[in-house]
Each structure stands twice: as structure tokens, then as C-alpha cells.
Amino acid sequence: MYTAEGKFNKNSIIEQYYPLVRRQAFNLKVKLPAGVDVDDLIQAGVEGLLSCVDRFDPDSGVAFSTYAHQRIRGAMIDELRSRDWLPRSVRRSGRELEQTIRRLEQQLGRVPEEREIATELGMELNEYHQLLLDTNNGLVLSYDEVVTDTPNAETNGDEEAEPEAQIGAAELKSLLVQAIDSLPEREKLVMTLYYQEELNLKEIGAVLDVTESRVSQLHSQAIKRIRARVAA
């Protein structure tokens, strides 16, 4: 991995870590819309890998493999964020949905049901389900932004980060645990199968005996509930 001068050999690094780049790209692809090209993810991952050569600090106490893993995935997420494939109108509707869920939770003192949310939005249930499908395309990244440690990758593993930042992260994690635990059982199961077991929508549909579209709706609704609770 090093040259005779003791520097990183980029060709050697690409050869060694390319299988990891591909694996991460395909793992991410199954959670994304069909229009996303896996080759673009791989290209972004390779660029992220090469950036490690210039940015890695051998004295940080973090293994290069750990840092590379974080930067590869972070580069793919950055590439996806740059696409911004959701129309503004859909994003606006998504924010309104989160606000509605938060308002109903405060009014009812419990998790609102689908029909209650749809009524509050002035929609028929089928219109509400379509809104969930429309907004679900961008929710994988939204969830990643909230529940992964991607931002910490930028610190090069520095454990001497500002205490205020560490406290804030701990509080956020606690809020997330509470928010996920408060989900209806079926939505909680979707989140577990999707993010922890890494099943795709079709596989989860087979487990729950529902269609892929219904899984997508449940996933979207779960994310909206989580974000509404965390932002409250």
C-alpha cells in the first residue's frame, strides 16, 4: 500500500479497496430509486477513497481502513445529495406532512393514525398514500443524515471534538431511540428490516405479505414520524 518513499500508492489502494467500494455502492443502490446508476455511486466512492490519501492522518489513532470506509460511503451520499431529485413542491408537501404529524401528536397525545393524518391534510386516504410514495424517494438520505455517524468521519477520528458537540450528538441519539421506539409496530418492523437487516422493499413486502408500494408508504411514514418527533 506504500511506495518505496513511504507514501501511499494510489494504484495499490484502489486495487485493494475497490471491492469495498462496489459492495457499498450495491448495498446503497437497493434502497434508492431505479433512476440512480450504481456506476455513478462507484465512481463517487473511488473519488472518496482517493481523497483519503491526501486527508488521512496516520497519527490520528484511526486505522486507514476505518477512515476509508467512512469516506467512501460519505462520498456516495454527497453524490446523491447533489442530485436533489425531489421537486420543490414534493419537498414542501413533505415538510407540511411532518408538521401535521407533530401537531396531531401534540393534540392527541399519541401517534396519529393514517386516516387522521390524511383528514388533517384535507386528503383522501389514497391521495395521502400517493404523497408518501412521492416523498419516499428522498428519505433514505434524510434518514442517513440523522441516524448515521457520517458527520464524524470529517473529524478524522478526532476524539477531542468540542464537548458541546458530543453532548448534542448524545442527546440526538437519545431522541432518535425514543422516536423509533414510539413507532407503530409494523412501521418499526419495516425500519428494522430495512436499515438493520438490509432487506430491500420487495423482500420486506414478502415478510409482511404486502406490496412493495405499501412497504414504501410505511417506510416514508415512519421517517416522517421520526423527523417530526426529533424536531419537536
Description of the structure:
This protein has 232 residues and is an all-alpha fold. It folds into two domains: 7-85, Rna Polymerase Sigma Factor, Chain: A, CATH 1.10.1740.10; 87-232, Butyryl-CoA Dehydrogenase, subunit A, domain 3 (Up-down Bundle), CATH 1.20.140. Helices cover 72% and strands 0% of the residues. It has eleven helices and no strands. The protein has helices at residues 10-29, 38-55, 64-83, 88-108, 114-120, 125-136, 139-147, 163-181, 185-196, 201-208, 212-231. Helix 4 packs across helix 11. The longest helix has 21 residues, at 88-108. The chain is elongated, with a radius of gyration of 20 Å. The N and C termini lie far apart (48 Å).
Quick description:
With 232 residues, the protein is mostly helical. The chain has eleven helices and no strands.
Structural class: mainly alpha
N-C termini distance? 48 Å
**What's the CATH topology label of the largest domain?**
Butyryl-CoA Dehydrogenase, subunit A, domain 3
Please count the beta strands (DSSP E, at least 2 residues each). Answer: 0
| Main sheet attributes: strand count, strand direction, barrel closure | none
Portion in helices: over 70%
Gross morphology is elongated
Question: What is the helix tally?
Answer: 11
List keywords for this structure.
Rna Polymerase Sigma Factor, Chain: A, 11 helices, 232 residues, elongated, Butyryl-CoA Dehydrogenase, subunit A, domain 3, 0% strand
Give the helix/strand layout:
Layout: H1 10-29, H2 38-55, H3 64-83, H4 88-108, H5 114-120, H6 125-136, H7 139-147, H8 163-181, H9 185-196, H10 201-208, H11 212-231
Helix pairs in contact: 1-2, 1-3, 2-3, 4-6, 4-11, 6-11, 8-11, 9-11, 10-11
